[in-house]
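Sequence and structure are no longer studied apart. To make this concrete, we show below a single chain and its fold as tokens.
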Amino acid sequence: MQPTQLEPHPEGGKFREVFRSIHSVDSQNLGRRSALTHIYFQLDHGEVSAFHKVSSEEVWNLYKGEGLKLYQWDGESDQVEVIELSEAANQYCHVVPAHHWQAAEPLGDSTLVGCSVAPGFEFQDFTLLRDCCSLAEQLKQKQPKLAYLVVDR
């Protein structure tokens, strides 16, 4: 599975923006944003999407591959929610709330998903957990088995 023209993403994996709405919305917290953006996002075996957050809601949709594990954390609780997007789980999409930390890893060799963000994604609204030292350490202490999803890949 090789969608064309995918580029490395700072969180890991590869992506390509395939849609940016020509319509804009005014967000109380973000200012003026595109109403919706959508990317193709691919993770191959051994790659992860490191813990990160965006300032808008994000919908993950499974397109190809065995699936992926999507991790979601509110930044405060002791537990990290694990959502499996796969045919086996009979779940093909999931919405990550705005400002929640998220990470992902493929279940098989390669997984292609689509990620829609509304209001639209801007890199200035993107934060990697590894850049928030005390919070990154807090997650590693609460969930040491997930430390590999915090480090720079």
Observations:
- The mean pLDDT is 94.
- The radius of gyration is 15 Å.
- Residues 45 and 109 are 5 Å apart (CA to CA).
